[in-house]
Amino acid sequence: GENVEQHPSTLSVQEGDSAVIKCTYSDSASNYFPWYKQELGKGPQLIIDIRSNVGEKKDQRIAVTLNKTAKHFSLHITETQPEDSAVYFCAAVPGNQFYFGTGTSLTVIP
Amino acid sequence: EAQVTQNPRYLITVTGKKLTVTCSQNMNHEYMSWYRQDPGLGLRQIYYSMNVEVTDKGDVPEGYKVSRKEKRNFPLILESPSPNQTSLYFCATHPLGPGEAFFGQGTRLTVV
Q: Backbone phi, then psi, for A49, in 5-degree steps?
């Protein structure tokens, strides 16, 4: 089955700086790559996603890039704010089943 | 409003006492699944269902059962819970094919 690796496991940045989280996947059949944000005590919520026919997607301060050849994709958050502090999960989806990374705990220091 | 409702939110039980965690969705999605979340391990899929009466094992199905008698409900059953099933559980749903998955609020289970 699919194997998704996510790095780093923890990340601390100063408010206003950028944060980058990286994921790799193994199954070339994966064609959908969502990113989820999980705040304390809540379920994960989708923040951005990208499909395999697109190399980059941006939504305000958040962007995702995909390199299908190298089988890796990244989440970029610019101008970070304290409310960006949360756990972030990447996922790769071949077909219908979601395979998640192990998560990145992001702390934005005011 | 799109909702995935899990109950209970918190549960403390003893080893061997059967329990059920319920999950209900109002989005008419075909696909429903259960995950457990453990520190350092991320979200691991327990079971999933692609439609009524169709269920299949995920990555960590041992010790769990599920049923899908109605499209909106997908209960998770622990027939004889053990302490290693202490975890945070999430139900999720999404339409077939690539698309956003919606998660419930989670059920924190402690087995003593």
A: -145, 165
Pair of tokens at residue B20? 């059920």
Cβ of A49 and B101 within 8 Å?
A: no
Question: Mean pLDDT for each 10-residue chunk of chain B (112 residues)?
Answer: 94 97 95 94 93 92 97 97 98 85 96 98
> What DSSP designation does A93 have?
B
Q: Cβ contact (<8 Å) for B100 and A100?
A: no
Q: Which of B37, B43, B96 to mutate to test the interface with A (most CBs of A within 10 A)?
A: B43
Rounded distance between C-alpha atoms, residue A108 and residue B55, angstroms: 41
Spatial CA neighbour of B9 closest among B26, B23, B28? B23
Radius of gyration of chain B (CA): 13
For residue A100, the chain B residues in CB contact (below 8 A) are 35, 42-44
CA distance B54 to A49: 27
What are the tens digits of pLDDT across the range A27-53?
Answer: 999 999 999 999 998 999 999 999 988
Q: Does A93 touch chain B (CB under 8 A)?
A: yes
User: Residue A74, class by beta-carbon neighbours within 10 Å (0-12 exposed, 13-18 middle, 19+ buried)?
Assistant: middle
Give exposure, B56-84, as e/b (b: 16+ Cβ within 10 Å). eebebbeebebbbeebbbbbbebeebeee
